[in-house]
Write a structure and sequence with these properties.
- One of its GO terms (molecular function) is oxidoreductase activity.
- InterPro entries: Ald_Oxase/Xan_DH_a/b (IPR000674), Ald_Oxase/Xan_DH_a/b_sf (IPR036856), Ald_Oxase/xanthine_DH-like (IPR016208), AldOxase/xan_DH_MoCoBD1 (IPR008274), AldOxase/xan_DH_MoCoBD2 (IPR046867), AldOxase/xan_DH_Mopterin-bd_sf (IPR037165).
- This is Xanthine dehydrogenase.
- The chain is an alpha+beta fold and about 700 residues long.
- It is built from 16 helices and 27 strands.
- It has a seven-stranded mixed sheet. Strands 7, 8, 9, 14, 15 and 16 form a six-stranded mixed sheet that branches. A five-stranded mixed sheet has the order 17-18-23-24-27, with helices on both faces.
């Protein structure tokens, strides 16, 4: 551990030798193309498949009239169970054919008649129309609403106050690899090759839906081409592929979503409307914090982004209130997306902290340090480690913050207004349940580690091998790690920045058990037949004794053209406290990737909804803008030394998501410093700046 190794599979990937789900070689495959609804809500009153069925090469046409009855209650996954339509683009059928071209052509020939109903896709007016409700549940481990003290009275008495509303748009994940499945039913069971963050989750979901035993299903996912959360939950494309394969037994069916389809089928980050109220005394110490978020979900299934969840962790205050509300609309179901909750919530909170610094005449870095808590502000637990002040100070030193003139519009360079901004970052350190590992050792010292975990392109395969070698006290060359197959012991999902923390802790427990067995039963010598142990992930005895979080500080320099309003970000710098770093090379890659995604969030990304038809209109990468090389300047990521013996045996904290947290706020704060204009709605585009020029 601690060595900056390149990813072991990197050479195979750049040479095209790494096999992703859709590329897996299968004999005589069939192809599936989906038929999707063209209304936002309504009922199918007629469906004509005759032209599609008559096309040469068409094997079967799937609709709600011949689809199998599913044994699952999940509204998002219960497709083709009736003629009801819940959102525009919902699957209403599919065509299975000998080639993808034939399948697509025939799918376009399926004629569907609807009885359309009025649809509601308006989040902005949901409060006025009485459409809001408190979520029944949010992501595990985090409360929905929080009250401590008397926020309203404290705000009224505060020497300095901020009361602002911030908006973030609909974001889509857009991993490089689309969602893909190969499904094949045989007399022996069902085989699936799936692009997923959780092979075991695919196995159990499909088993429930199709009334199978999990051991009748085998899921392969050796390589995944990105996910950003979209491949964590199961979506309707998986169910449609398995349904289609039932109609052509013994034929593997390939199904890949198009980029267009991914904008409605695989989840997204809900837009948010967030009100943040801060009160502070004359010295800048917070006396009250209130954070309210309004988000959307579908009518099929509830999902809450929980944008307020980081707020109770951040700053010391005697009075604290967070609120979460949802509007159920005639739209697809949102899903987890990189740093769910923290990503959008910290944009609002950290923008408000910058507004408080300006209103109180305080340095934004000093304001955050001044409000550093001794214990968790809500539950009073000590932090297992908390190095946010160190991140802020080190970041300020590296960034050159001390030379900053706090006056907006004070710095110009060749026709550009130059500004700098800062924001804090946090993400919880989680250990997700459900992992096991099998470790085999042979007399020649070879160790094989088996676990149904996945590598979604983050370097997990390399980092876990480093953890295993360290735990087994052997060289890397003596360890073979096998992932991505449900024939191996189950693994928790890749998500929540919990991959290494969960799987690594399990591997460490397996290494300890292997040594114990060798010593107790074999005198410390590997027997001729070898030895195998299988263990569960151990519980963390410190989980209820400490609050466990990673922290960081984001700095950004922006340049805004004085005449055109064009925005450039020549510099981003982040400093993080993420415990022990397993692999500095892949860690740095993850952090700067998150920061770049934060820049994209700040300046470019937004899915645009057409309320007339209830769908996203910029549903491709030509019109859904993401940051390209031309948009990204110098991005630097560093970390401070942090020893945390309580989080897990390795002392690691997840770092796959914290890089995006606070990045957009730092850029927005820098735009205000450059221009004097406070933009509270993302993305920050010319139309929002030009009225103030």
């Amino acid at each position: 551990m601690g060595q900056p190794l390149s990813r072991f599979e990197g050479e195979d990937k750049v040479r095209g030798l790494a096999t992703y789900a859709f590329e897996h070689p299968v004999p005589h495959p069939a192809y599936l193309s989906a038929v999707r609804s063209t209304v936002a809500t309504g009922e199918i009153i007629g469906i004509d498949c005759s032209q599609a069925s008559a096309q040469p090469g068409v094997l079967a046409v799937l609709t709600h009239l011949n689809a199998p009855r599913l044994g699952i209650d999940d509204g998002e996954l219960r497709i083709l169970q009736s003629g009801d339509v819940a959102f525009r683009g919902q699957f209403v059928g599919g065509v299975i054919a000998e080639s993808s071209e034939i399948a697509r052509h025939a799918a376009a020939l399926v004629r569907v008649d609807y009885r359309e109903r009025p649809h509601d896709v308006d989040l902005e007016s949901s409060r006025e129309r009485g459409q809001l409700r408190v979520p029944q549940q949010t992501m595990a481990l985090f409360p929905m609403d929080t009250d401590k003290g008397d926020v309203d009275s404290a705000l009224a008495a505060a020497a300095v106050q901020v009361d602002s509303t911030y908006r973030t748009p609909w974001y889509n994940h857009n991993p490089l690899e689309p969602h893909t499945t190969i499904a094949c039913w045989t007399s022996a069971g069902l085989t699936l090759h799936v692009s997923t963050q959780h092979p075991q989750g695919v196995q159990t979901t499909v088993a429930t839906a199709f009334r199978l035993e999990p051991d009748q299903i085998r899921v392969f996912s050796p390589h995944v081409g990105g996910a950003f959360g979209s491949k964590g939950p199961r979506h309707s494309d998986l169910i449609l592929a398995v349904m289609a394969a039932q109609l052509v037994p013994d034929r593997p069916v390939r199904f890949a979503l198009t980029r267009h389809q991914m904008f409605s089928q695989t989840g997204y980050r809900s837009p948010t409307m967030q009100r943040v109220r801060l009160g502070a005394d004359a010295d800048g110490r917070l006396t009250a914090v209130a954070h309210e978020s309004i988000e959307q979900t579908s009518r099929l299934k509830e999902f809450a982004e929980h944008a307020t969840r980081a707020t109770p962790t951040m700053y010391a205050t005697p009075h604290l209130q967070v609120r979460q509300q949802l509007a159920a609309l005639d739209l697809p179901t949102p899903a987890i997306m990189r740093a769910p909750g923290e990503c959008v919530g910290m944009f609002a909170l950290e923008s408000a902290m910058d507004e408080l610094a300006v209103a109180g005449g305080l340095d934004p870095v000093e304001l955050r340090i001044r409000n550093e808590p001794d214990t968790h502000p809500l539950d009073g637990l000590p932090f297992s480690s908390r190095s946010l002040p160190a991140c802020l100070r080190e970041g300020a030193r590296r960034f050159g913050w001390e030379s900053r003139d706090p006056t907006p519009r004070a710095r110009r360079h060749d026709g550009w207004l130059v500004g700098t901004g800062v924001a804090a970052a946090t993400y919880p350190t989680l250990r997700l349940p459900g992992s096991k590992v099998t470790i085999r050792v042979t007399p020649d010292g070879r160790h094989t580690v088996l676990m149904a975990a996945v590598d979604i392109g983050t370097g997990t395969r390399t980092a876990l091998t480093q953890v295993a070698a360290d735990a087994l006290r052997v060289d890397l060359a003596q360890v073979e790690l096998r992932l991505g197959d449900t024939a191996y012991p189950p693994a928790a999902p890749e998500g929540g920045s919990a991959g290494i923390t969960s799987w690594g802790a399990t591997i460490c427990a397996g290494a300890d058990e292997l040594r114990r067995r060798l010593a107790a039963d074999h005198g410390g010598t590997v027997p001729a037949e070898g030895l195998e142990v299988t263990v569960d992930m151990p519980e963390n005895p410190h989980l209820k004794q400490y609050a466990m979080h990673a922290f960081g500080a984001q700095f950004a320099e922006v340049r805004v053209h004085d005449e055109t309003g064009e925005i450039r970000v020549p510099r981003q710098l982040g400093v993080y406290a993420v415990g022990r770093v397993v692999n500095p090379k892949t860690a740095h890659s993850q952090l700067i990737g998150g920061m770049t995604m934060g820049l994209s969030m700040a300046l470019h990304e937004a899915s645009i909804l057409d309320p007339r038809y209830g769908h996203v209109v910029n549903h491709d990468l030509a019109t859904y803008h993401v940051s390209s090389n031309a948009d990204v300047g110098t991005v630097d990521a560093y970390w401070v030394e942090e020893d945390d013996p309580y989080v897990n045996p390795m002392g690691t904290k997840g770092l796959g998501e914290i890089g995006i947290v606070g990045a957009a706020a730092a850029i927005a704060n820098a735009v205000h410093h450059a221009t004097g204009v406070r933009i509270r709605e993302l993305p920050i585009t010319l139309d929002k700046l030009l009225p103030h020029e």
